[in-house]
Specification:
Shape: globular
Helix content: 55-70%
Strand order of the largest sheet: 1-3-2
Distance between the termini: 44 Å
Structural class: mainly alpha
Radius of gyration: 15 Å
Protein backbone atom coordinates (compact mmCIF):
# COMPACT_ATOMS: atom_id res chain seq x y z
CA UNK A 1 0.00 0.00 0.00
CA UNK A 2 1.11 3.53 -0.75
CA UNK A 3 1.05 6.59 1.45
CA UNK A 4 -2.39 8.17 1.83
CA UNK A 5 -2.73 11.55 0.12
CA UNK A 6 -2.68 14.65 2.28
CA UNK A 7 -6.00 15.44 3.87
CA UNK A 8 -6.11 12.56 6.32
CA UNK A 9 -8.49 9.64 6.36
CA UNK A 10 -11.59 11.68 5.54
CA UNK A 11 -10.92 11.54 1.82
CA UNK A 12 -10.59 7.77 1.86
CA UNK A 13 -13.77 7.36 3.88
CA UNK A 14 -15.65 9.69 1.54
CA UNK A 15 -14.28 7.78 -1.42
CA UNK A 16 -15.36 4.44 0.07
CA UNK A 17 -18.82 5.86 0.85
CA UNK A 18 -19.16 7.20 -2.69
CA UNK A 19 -18.13 3.83 -4.14
CA UNK A 20 -20.59 2.00 -1.88
CA UNK A 21 -23.34 4.39 -2.93
CA UNK A 22 -22.47 3.89 -6.61
CA UNK A 23 -22.55 0.11 -6.27
CA UNK A 24 -25.92 0.17 -4.50
CA UNK A 25 -27.26 2.48 -7.19
CA UNK A 26 -25.96 0.14 -9.90
CA UNK A 27 -27.86 -2.76 -8.33
CA UNK A 28 -30.98 -0.66 -7.78
CA UNK A 29 -31.00 0.58 -11.37
CA UNK A 30 -30.77 -2.96 -12.75
CA UNK A 31 -33.93 -4.61 -14.09
CA UNK A 32 -33.10 -7.96 -12.49
CA UNK A 33 -30.60 -9.58 -10.17
CA UNK A 34 -29.03 -11.30 -13.19
CA UNK A 35 -28.56 -7.93 -14.89
CA UNK A 36 -27.05 -6.49 -11.71
CA UNK A 37 -24.62 -9.41 -11.61
CA UNK A 38 -23.71 -8.89 -15.25
CA UNK A 39 -23.06 -5.18 -14.72
CA UNK A 40 -20.85 -5.92 -11.72
CA UNK A 41 -18.93 -8.56 -13.72
CA UNK A 42 -18.38 -6.19 -16.63
CA UNK A 43 -17.07 -3.42 -14.39
CA UNK A 44 -14.87 -5.90 -12.50
CA UNK A 45 -13.40 -7.09 -15.80
CA UNK A 46 -12.63 -3.53 -16.94
CA UNK A 47 -10.92 -2.67 -13.65
CA UNK A 48 -9.07 -5.99 -13.42
CA UNK A 49 -7.72 -5.53 -16.96
CA UNK A 50 -6.32 -2.07 -16.25
CA UNK A 51 -4.88 -3.11 -12.88
CA UNK A 52 -3.21 -6.20 -14.38
CA UNK A 53 -1.96 -4.40 -17.51
CA UNK A 54 -1.62 -0.71 -16.66
CA UNK A 55 0.85 -0.05 -19.48
CA UNK A 56 -1.48 -1.36 -22.21
CA UNK A 57 -3.41 1.58 -23.61
CA UNK A 58 -6.42 -0.38 -24.76
CA UNK A 59 -7.13 -1.36 -21.15
CA UNK A 60 -6.98 2.29 -20.08
CA UNK A 61 -9.69 3.27 -22.55
CA UNK A 62 -13.33 2.15 -22.62
CA UNK A 63 -15.55 3.10 -25.54
CA UNK A 64 -18.85 3.86 -23.80
CA UNK A 65 -20.77 4.09 -27.08
CA UNK A 66 -20.19 0.45 -28.03
CA UNK A 67 -23.20 -1.85 -27.64
CA UNK A 68 -21.46 -3.77 -24.87
CA UNK A 69 -20.94 -0.78 -22.58
CA UNK A 70 -23.60 1.69 -23.69
CA UNK A 71 -26.24 0.37 -21.31
CA UNK A 72 -23.85 0.06 -18.38
CA UNK A 73 -22.04 3.37 -18.86
CA UNK A 74 -24.52 5.44 -20.84
CA UNK A 75 -23.32 8.96 -21.52
CA UNK A 76 -21.65 9.44 -18.19
CA UNK A 77 -24.65 9.76 -15.87
CA UNK A 78 -25.16 6.11 -14.92
CA UNK A 79 -23.97 4.38 -11.76
CA UNK A 80 -21.46 2.43 -13.87
CA UNK A 81 -20.02 5.69 -15.20
CA UNK A 82 -19.88 7.13 -11.69
CA UNK A 83 -17.92 4.08 -10.50
CA UNK A 84 -15.42 4.36 -13.37
CA UNK A 85 -14.88 8.02 -12.45
CA UNK A 86 -14.32 7.03 -8.81
CA UNK A 87 -11.74 4.54 -10.13
CA UNK A 88 -9.88 7.44 -11.74
CA UNK A 89 -11.26 7.32 -15.27
CA UNK A 90 -12.16 10.53 -17.08
CA UNK A 91 -15.00 10.81 -19.57
CA UNK A 92 -14.34 12.36 -22.96
CA UNK A 93 -17.06 11.35 -25.35
CA UNK A 94 -17.26 8.57 -26.34
CA UNK A 95 -14.50 7.14 -24.12
CA UNK A 96 -13.68 6.68 -20.49
CA UNK A 97 -9.90 6.95 -20.21
CA UNK A 98 -7.59 6.32 -17.27
CA UNK A 99 -4.84 8.96 -17.69
CA UNK A 100 -1.34 7.47 -17.73
CA UNK A 101 -0.33 9.60 -14.73
CA UNK A 102 -3.31 8.28 -12.71
CA UNK A 103 -2.32 5.76 -10.05
CA UNK A 104 -4.14 2.46 -9.72
CA UNK A 105 -5.12 2.79 -6.04
CA UNK A 106 -8.60 4.22 -6.78
CA UNK A 107 -9.28 1.49 -9.35
CA UNK A 108 -8.16 -1.17 -6.87
CA UNK A 109 -10.42 0.34 -4.19
CA UNK A 110 -13.46 0.26 -6.48
CA UNK A 111 -12.61 -3.30 -7.54
CA UNK A 112 -12.28 -4.49 -3.92
CA UNK A 113 -15.69 -3.12 -2.95
CA UNK A 114 -17.22 -4.31 -6.21
CA UNK A 115 -15.98 -7.86 -5.59
CA UNK A 116 -17.50 -7.75 -2.09
CA UNK A 117 -20.79 -6.75 -3.69
CA UNK A 118 -20.48 -9.63 -6.21
CA UNK A 119 -20.04 -12.12 -3.38
CA UNK A 120 -23.15 -10.73 -1.69
CA UNK A 121 -25.26 -9.94 -4.74
CA UNK A 122 -28.27 -11.88 -3.39
CA UNK A 123 -28.29 -9.78 -0.26
CA UNK A 124 -27.59 -6.57 -2.19
CA UNK A 125 -30.50 -7.30 -4.52
CA UNK A 126 -32.87 -8.19 -1.66
CA UNK A 127 -32.04 -5.01 0.25
CA UNK A 128 -31.64 -2.67 -2.73
CA UNK A 129 -34.40 -0.28 -1.58
CA UNK A 130 -33.56 -0.33 2.10
CA UNK A 131 -32.63 3.10 3.39
CA UNK A 132 -33.47 4.77 0.08
CA UNK A 133 -36.29 7.23 -0.47
CA UNK A 134 -39.25 5.23 -1.72
CA UNK A 135 -40.07 5.59 -5.39
CA UNK A 136 -43.68 4.60 -4.73
Amino acid sequence: GGVAPAGGGGDLRESLEAIGHGLRRLVRDSASKAEAGKSLSTLAMLLQNVINNPSIDRHRKVNASGARFRELLGTGGTAGAQLLRLAGFQYQEPNFTLPSEQGLEPAQRVLDLLQDMQRNVDQAWASRFVGEPSAA
